[in-house]
């Protein structure tokens, strides 16, 4: 008898401990990614690794919906734009920060002033258009612009424009805040083990907290792609992002996993340095465009998960135009153009990030394809910490790069890439004043139909000048354990973790 | 053992010389229709993610890897031998100076020193050879110096000196030939080390540049495909192992032959 009781008690104990462990593990979603973030100060970063985590810690005035098609209410419940396009009036919803204090219009005004004026801000230029901000009451914010701006509303949805707690920022100081931020998002930072993981827990004060199912989210850094995939396969992680294209088919066959491919605004392209001899000739650039077999790149690099890019504005994004005179693969025409250009034998250096498998694969393909039309390409593998500086100083002939949109409106990328910004048109030294003027005009044009016409014309002209070479569009690919539902990101990269559930 | 070791080395040397005839395909030709093909009669070692024939790449890779092993050893051997002989024979401030330089080089971990030299010179094979020559000579110098120190007090050396032979003649005709046995054996095991560091440096993207075929580069490029296309990593990996084995066996046999082990 007694023996049985002990047994029962032991069994009960065992059951209760497993039950506890089960309940605890249930609500925390662990996600593997390549590298750890750098900061939680929204204005001080331009990197996806930071934005993708901090956009679940902070909220923004207006959000981009899950499909990346429209702007939807965030902290602003509704807004009103004056007919002249200069005055925006936002009505804020009642919301609290993670420390329990109220979020007021003053916090929003403070956050927007910071991104415009603070010297830490990497985004000042995009917000210089804000002339004045008034807070008639705690829930109303009136923004006055110095001139009309079509993309303005979408810049408010950029993670950099996240709303920080003024009181917390002033009390903690900027450095401490960047480690342990106070925001109003669905999750709050619980612990940040630098270089290893960021542990987020549910923010009980989030305005829509009832709908948040997860108890927390853990972002773990696992740099090696194979190791990260194995960790999901073994059940050590609930999800992993940056799934290599080559692994997708194999992971799909695993009955315990689901592979999620979300449409993205990522575009991979080949930068050409227009200021270098040879590449300053439009015929040579055209020849390179004809000589590159984008279909082969899509097949070999993205395993057919991507698709050929024909414009710098990604497919599915606002004002993308298919009819821009994109060039097909035609090595004969490339040879003819090179002969016409009469620049002699061309020898170009190609800058590659050492250790970036995708970039290296593209480089090896392009090298071979250009060799077929008589252009010698020397690959120059450089540590990623140096490539950016080399690009900026113009110390390159060609190099592969990618861009994911930060805002819904094409103006940001267009300005960076074609609008003669301070960065020499994204390091290419491309110059076309007609395009530059059109970019400026498109920014001011408030009529969507007229804007569409302008952007179609810009895309046509840029393509005809071969400002760079569009290679391919690719989706964001992540993998989750079966039972994780509603995991994914919008085309700008934001994860909708407030809607994600974990049912095991 | 000597036969097996020399046999392996000879096989690789022949393979390297015959590469244009032995390789069934052009090692850098990309066949878009034959990507990631498993080993088959048409491609005995399969194809890689660009549709390049792995067998052809392994065969052509033998040229570069053998060249790396040889050049990577010859320069350190020559420099080290001269320095070691001078330091051992003259002693005094010459010895002190060279020994301190050696101490400095040895104070840094081998790979760290190699990587920093190569990152200053820029990636590529010639940087690798220069780095190897700058770092690798110290072991040879120490080996030879120790031998010379012992030999120069022996009767035949003293006799040569009393006969009035020049110092150069005593150093290089009388002492050095007797001191070389140890270094020659060490050359073989050093070749293994050089081969592996060359492969590692290329693996890190600092050595042989694409599209050239080198075994370390091949392993590095194929790493992402390990789970679904094992053949791209396996065969170049095996080639490294077998060649290294060949050097080791030869070294071992030489040691027995020359009586270095006593």
What attributes characterize this protein structure?
heterodimer; A: 504 residues; alpha+beta; D-Maltodextrin-Binding Protein, domain 2; Dipeptide-binding Protein, domain 1; Dipeptide-binding Protein, domain 3; 3 domains; 7-stranded mixed sheet; globular; B: 262 residues; mainly alpha; MetI-like fold; 10 helices; 74% helix
Please describe what this structure looks like:
The complex is a heterodimer of chains A (504) and B (262). Chain A has 18 helices and 21 strands. Chain A has 504 residues and is an alpha+beta fold. Chain A has three domains: 173 residues, D-Maltodextrin-Binding Protein, domain 2 (3-Layer(aba) Sandwich); 108 residues, Dipeptide-binding Protein, domain 1, CATH 3.90.76.10; 210 residues, Dipeptide-binding Protein, Domain 3 (Dipeptide-binding Protein, domain 3, Roll), CATH 3.10.105.10. In chain A, strands 8-9-10-1-11-19-12 form a seven-stranded mixed beta sheet. Chain A has a six-stranded mixed beta sheet with strand order 14-18-13-17-15-16. In chain A, strand 8 and strand 9 form a beta hairpin. Chain A is globular, with a radius of gyration of 25 Å. The N terminus of chain A is likely disordered. Chain B has 262 residues and is mostly helical. In chain B, helix 3 packs parallel to helix 10 and helix 6 runs antiparallel to helix 8. The longest helix of chain B is centred in the N-terminal third of the chain and has 37 residues. Chain B starts with a helix and ends with a helix. Chains A and B meet through helix 11, helix 13 and strand 16 of A and loops of B.
Could you give the topology of this structure?
The complex is a heterodimer of chains A (504) and B (262).
Chain A: H1 2-26, E1 28-33, H2 48-54, E2 62-64, E3 71-73, E4 76-81, E5 87-92, H3 105-117, H4 124-127, E6 130-137, E7 140-145, H5 152-155, H6 166-172, H7 174-179, E8 187-193, E9 197-202, E10 216-221, H8 225-233, E11 239-240, H9 248-252, E12 257-262, E13 267-272, H10 282-291, H11 294-302, E14 307-308, H12 331-341, E15 346-353, H13 357-371, E16 375-382, H14 384-392, E17 398-403, H15 411-418, H16 424-427, H17 433-444, H18 448-465, E18 469-473, E19 476-481, E20 484-485, E21 501-502
Parallel strand pairs in A: 1-10, 1-11, 15-16, 15-17
Antiparallel strand pairs in A: 2-3, 4-5, 5-7, 6-7, 8-9, 9-10, 11-19, 12-19, 13-17, 13-18, 14-18, 20-21
Helix pairs in contact in A: 10-12, 11-13, 15-17, 17-18
Chain B: H1 2-17, H2 19-22, H3 54-90, H4 92-107, H5 110-121, H6 125-151, H7 155-162, H8 167-203, H9 215-222, H10 230-258
Helix pairs in contact in B: 1-3, 1-10, 3-4, 3-6, 3-8, 3-10, 4-6, 5-6, 6-8, 7-8, 8-9, 8-10, 9-10
């Amino acid at each position: 008898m007694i023996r049985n009781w002990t047994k029962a008690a032991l069994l009960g104990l065992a059951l209760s401990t497993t039950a506890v462990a089960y309940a605890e593990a249930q609500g925390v979603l662990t996600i593997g990614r390549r590298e750890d973030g750098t900061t939680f100060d929204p204005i001080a970063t331009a990197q996806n690794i930071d934005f993708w985590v901090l956009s679940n810690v902070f909220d923004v005035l207006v959000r981009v919906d899950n499909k990346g098609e429209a702007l939807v209410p965030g902290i602003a419940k509704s807004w009103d734009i004056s007919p002249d396009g200069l005055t925006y009036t936002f009505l804020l919803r009642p919301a609290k920060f993670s420390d329990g204090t109220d979020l007021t219009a003053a916090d929003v005004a403070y956050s927007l002033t910071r991104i415009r004026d603070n010297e830490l801000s990497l985004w000042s230029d995009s917000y210089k258009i804000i002339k004045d901000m008034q807070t008639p009451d705690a829930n109303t914010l009136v923004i006055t612009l110095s001139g009309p701006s079509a993309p303005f509303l979408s810049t408010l949805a950029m993670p950099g424009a996240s709303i920080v707690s003024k009181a917390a920022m002033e009390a903690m100081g900027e450095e401490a805040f960047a480690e342990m931020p106070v925001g109003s998002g669905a999750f709050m930072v619980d612990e940040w083990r630098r270089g290893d993981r960021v542990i987020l827990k549910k923010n009980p004060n989030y305005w829509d907290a009832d709908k948040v199912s997860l108890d927390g989210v853990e972002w773990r850094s696992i740099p090696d792609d194979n190791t990260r995939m194995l960790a999901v396969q073994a059940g050590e992680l609930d999800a992993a992002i940056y799934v290599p294209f080559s692994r997708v088919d194999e992971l799909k066959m695993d009955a315990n996993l689901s592979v999620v491919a979300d449409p993205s605004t990522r575009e991979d392209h080949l930068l050409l340095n227009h200021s270098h001899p040879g590449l300053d000739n439009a015929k040579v650039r055209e020849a390179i465009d004809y000589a590159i077999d984008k279909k082969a790149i899509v097949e070999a690099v993205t395993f057919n998960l991507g698709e050929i890019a024909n414009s710098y504005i990604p497919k599915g994004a606002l004002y993308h135009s298919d009819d821009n005179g994109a060039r097909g693969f035609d090595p004969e025409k490339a040879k003819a153009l090179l002969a016409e250009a009469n620049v002699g034998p061309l020898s170009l250096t190609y800058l590659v990030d050492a250790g970036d498998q995708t970039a290296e694969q593209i480089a090896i393909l392009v090298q071979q394809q250009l060799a077929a039309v008589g252009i010698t390409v020397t690959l120059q593998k450089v540590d990623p910490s140096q490539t950016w500086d080399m690009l900026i100083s113009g110390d390159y002939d060609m190099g592969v790069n990618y861009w994911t949109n930060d805002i819904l409106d094409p103006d940001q990328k267009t300005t960076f890439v074609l609008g003669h910004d301070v960065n020499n048109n994204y390091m290419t030294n491309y110059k076309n004043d007609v395009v530059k003027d059109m970019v400026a005009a498109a920014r001011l044009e408030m009529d969507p139909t007229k804007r569409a016409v302008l952007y179609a014309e810009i895309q046509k002209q840029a393509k005809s000048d071969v400002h760079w070479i569009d290679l391919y569009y690719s989706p964001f690919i992540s993998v989750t354990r079966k039972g994780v539902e509603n995991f994914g990101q919008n085309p700008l990269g934001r994860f909708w973790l407030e809607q994600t559930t974990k049912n095991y | 053992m000597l036969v097996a070791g020399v046999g392996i080395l000879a096989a690789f040397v022949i393979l390297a010389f015959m590469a244009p005839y032995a390789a069934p395909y052009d090692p850098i030709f990309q066949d878009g229709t034959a990507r990631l093909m498993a080993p088959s009669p048409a491609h005995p070692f399969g194809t890689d993610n660009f549709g390049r024939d792995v067998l052809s790449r392994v065969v052509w890779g033998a040229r570069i890897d053998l060249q790396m092993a040889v050049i990577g050893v010859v320069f350190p051997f020559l420099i080290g031998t001269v320095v070691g002989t001078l330091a051992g024979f003259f002693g005094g401030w010459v010895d002190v100076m060279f020994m301190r330089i050696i101490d400095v080089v040895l104070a840094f971990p081998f790979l760290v020193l190699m990587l920093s030299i190569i990152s200053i010179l820029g990636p590529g094979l010639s940087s690798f050879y220069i780095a190897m020559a700058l770092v690798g000579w110290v072991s040879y110098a120490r080996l030879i110096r120790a031998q010379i120190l012992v030999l120069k007090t022996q009767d035949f050396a003293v006799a040569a000196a009393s006969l009035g032979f020049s110092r150069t003649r005593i150093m290089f005709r009388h002492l050095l030939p007797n001191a070389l046995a140890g270094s020659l054996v060490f050359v073989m095991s050093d070749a293994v080390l050089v081969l592996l560091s060359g492969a590692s440096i290329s693996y890190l993207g600092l050595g042989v540049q694409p599209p050239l075929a080198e075994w370390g580069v091949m392993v590095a490029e194929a790493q992402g495909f390990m789970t679904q296309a094992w053949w791209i990593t396996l065969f170049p990996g095996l080639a490294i192992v077998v060649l290294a084995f060949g050097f080791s066996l030869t070294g071992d046999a030489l040691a027995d032959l020359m009586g270095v082990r006593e």
